[in-house]
């Protein structure tokens, strides 16, 4: 299986590039952000918990996220591979993913880190906020999300560096240019 973790700060283009990757490489897609937003719009218990964290720009607790992935992963076994978008976001989540994949005798093939400067992130998310209706796309929450990324999510980079599956890509430029760099990486690990 080709298992890809697409990684980067909020607004770095994880969701945008995932769509391109799925189409070209025919992979299954797990976006924890999308799963959480679906729970919120379905007014489920999980959605109520998730909303209280997302609205503040905080991470949803690891146990909630890991349980959600655990429920989903079984249905993906047998696919060509999976793109993990927005997950893992903590070292604890990265360890849990490793254990879950090991149960199916597979592992993360590559982790792609989209590098984008803070100013550009803020600009993109404010722009998206004008049309997305997302409660977390406002300046105060965006600043909080970027700080949470720096303190809680960035350490995941070292986890994958140690596993020797880490690749960094410049996430600035046109969507097509960035996807070109991602394709080079994916073609080299296939
Ligand atoms: P996510 O839904 O994962 O949101 P994100 O980080 O904001 O988005 P992404 O990087 O995918 O940006 P996109 O491509 O859309 O998470 C939302 C929240 O859910 C988190 O803050 C957290 O609270 C919670 N959550 C999710 N997963 C979790 C987990 N594992 N653990 C705990 N909590 C979790 O791009 C953004 C904008 O930029 C778009 O408008 C796009 O059009 C634009 N853009 C993209 N590429 C561009 C380019 N090259 N040039 C110009 N603009 C570009």
UniProtKB/TrEMBL annotation:
GO cellular component, alphabetical, reads: cytoplasm
**InterPro entries for this protein:** Adenylat/UMP-CMP_kin (IPR000850), Adenylat_kinase_CS (IPR033690), P-loop_NTPase (IPR027417)
Task: Read off the Gene3D superfamilies from this record.
Answer: P-loop containing nucleotide triphosphate hydrolases
Which EC class does it fall in? transferase
- Keyword Transferase listed? The answer is yes
Domains (record comment)? Consists of three domains, a large central CORE domain and two small peripheral domains, NMPbind and LID, which undergo movements during catalysis. The LID domain closes over the site of phosphoryl transfer upon ATP binding. Assembling and dissambling the active center during each catalytic cycle provides an effective means to prevent ATP hydrolysis.
Which family does the similarity line name? Answer: Belongs to the adenylate kinase family.
* Chain intervals for the UniProt region annotation (NMP): 31-60
Please report the name of this protein according to its UniProt entry: Adenylate kinase
Pfam families this protein is in?
ADK (PF00406)
User: PANTHER family from the xrefs?
Assistant: NUCLEOTIDE KINASE
Q: What PROSITE patterns does the record tag this protein with?
A: ADENYLATE_KINASE (PS00113)
Q: Where does AMP bind?
A: 32, 37, 58-60, 86-89, 93, 134, 145
Annotated binding of ATP, by residue: 11-16, 128, 173
Q: Which gene encodes it?
A: adk
Q: What is its main location?
A: cytoplasm
The protein's annotated catalytic reaction(s) are:
AMP + ATP = 2 ADP
Keyword Cytoplasm recorded: yes
Which molecular-function annotation in GO is an example for this chain? AMP kinase activity
Which subcellular locations apply to this protein?
Cytoplasm
Q: How does it assemble?
A: Monomer.
Q: In which pathway does it act?
A: Purine metabolism; AMP biosynthesis via salvage pathway; AMP from ADP: step 1/1
In the Enzyme Commission scheme, what number(s) does this protein have? 2.7.4.3
> What function is annotated for this protein?
Catalyzes the reversible transfer of the terminal phosphate group between ATP and AMP. Plays an important role in cellular energy homeostasis and in adenine nucleotide metabolism.
Q: Which NCBIfam families match?
A: PRK00279.1-3 (NF001381), PRK14527.1 (NF011100), PRK14528.1 (NF011101), PRK14531.1 (NF011104), PRK14532.1 (NF011105)
């Amino acid at each position: 299986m080709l298992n890809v973790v697409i990684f980067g700060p909020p607004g770095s283009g994880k969701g945008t590039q995932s769509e391109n990757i799925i189409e070209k490489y025919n992979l299954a897609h797990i976006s924890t952000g999308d799963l959480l937003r679906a729970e919120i719009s379905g007014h489920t218990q999980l959605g109520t918990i998730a909303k209280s964290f997302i609205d503040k720009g905080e991470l949803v607790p690891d146990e909630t996220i890991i349980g959600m992935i655990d429920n989903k992963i079984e249905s993906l076994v047998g696919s060509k591979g999976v793109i993990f978008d927005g997950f893992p976001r903590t070292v604890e989540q990265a360890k849990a993913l490793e254990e879950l994949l090991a149960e199916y005798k597979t592992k993360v093939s590559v982790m792609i880190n989209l590098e984008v400067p803070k100013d550009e992130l803020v600009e993109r998310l404010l722009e998206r906020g004008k049309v997305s209706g997302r409660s977390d796309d406002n300046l105060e929450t965006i600043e909080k999300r970027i700080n949470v990324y720096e303190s809680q999510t960035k350490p995941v980079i070292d986890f994958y560096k140690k596993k020797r599956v880490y690749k960094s890509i410049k996430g600035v430029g046109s969507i097509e240019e960035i996807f070109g760099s991602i394709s080079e990486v994916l073609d080299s690990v296939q």
